[in-house]
C-alpha cells in the first residue's frame, strides 16, 4: 500500500508545482503536498482553479514504474491515461464515505476526471483532477470544494450529512480511497473499473459533445471502453471511441 508523507502549506502557487519539484529531486512515491489556499492553482489542461481557503488542494507524487516488474512496463505505460479516471472514482468514493448514504446518488463522475453533483436537472462541479506525466513519474492533483464555493459550484458541506465535514476529513478519506484503488490499478487492467465508472457516470444516456481543438464529436454516451475511451453513439448508429477532449453535456437523449 502506498505510504503517504504529507507536507501542509498555508499558501502556494500550486501544489502540483511543489510535487513536480519533489519528482525532480528524486523524492519517493507517496509524498503529498496540501495547501490551505493556492494563488496559481490549475486543473486539467492548465485550466485555472479558484483556490480560496475552504477547499482541499493536494497533489500526490506517484512512481508506478517502480512498482511493476520490468516485463510489465509497456502495459503500464499504455494504461497510464486511465489513472485519471480511476482517480475520479477514488475521489468520489472518498467523498461519499464522509457523507450520508443518500448523498451517493447525487455524486457522479464526468469523463475523464471531474466529480460532479446532480443539481436541479443539471450538474455542478465538486472536484477537478489533473494527472501530469514527468520523466521521473506522475503528479496527481486533486481539488475538492469542501466549504461554500459559490453558486456555480457544488461543495461537500451542502450535501446530505456534510454540514460538519472538514477539509481534513475529506483529505483523509480521499487519500485512503485513492491508495486502495491505486494498488488495484497497478495490477489490474482498466476493464476492472469500467462497470463502476459507467454506473456512476454523469454522461451515460445523455447527448454529449466532445471538443478536441477545432473538432467536435457528438453522440449519446454509451459509457467507456476497456481502455478508458469515451463511447458515443452517433446519429447513424456507429459507435465512436474518444481518446481525449473536453466533454459537454448537451441534453438527456430521447
Overview of this protein structure:
The strands form 2 sheets. The protein has a 7-stranded mixed β-sheet. 24% of the residues lie in helices and 35% in strands. Helix 3 (83-97) crosses helix 4 (167-187). The protein is globular. The chain is an alpha+beta fold. A hairpin with a 2-residue loop joins strand 5 and strand 6. The mean pLDDT is 92. The chain folds into 2 domains: 5-199, Bira Bifunctional Protein, Domain 2 (BirA Bifunctional Protein, domain 2), CATH 3.30.930; 206-252, Roll (SH3 type barrels), CATH 2.30.30.100. It is built from 5 helices and 12 strands.
CATH topology of the largest domain: BirA Bifunctional Protein, domain 2
Name of the CATH superfamily of the largest domain: Bira Bifunctional Protein, Domain 2
Strand content: 25-35%
Overall mean pLDDT score?
Answer: 92
How many beta-strand runs? 12
The domain tally reads 2
Please give the count of helices: 5
Strand order of the largest sheet: 1-2-3-7-6-5-4
- According to CATH, what is the class of the largest domain? Alpha Beta
The sequence of SSEs as H and E is: EHEEHHEEEEHHEEEEE
The CATH level-2 architecture of the largest domain is identified as 2-Layer Sandwich
Largest sheet: 7 strands, mixed
Rough outline: globular
Low-confidence stretches: none
Measure the end-to-end span: 45 Å
Oligomer kind: single chain
The structure class reads: alpha+beta
- Radius of gyration from the CA trace? 18 Å
Helix share bin: 10-25%
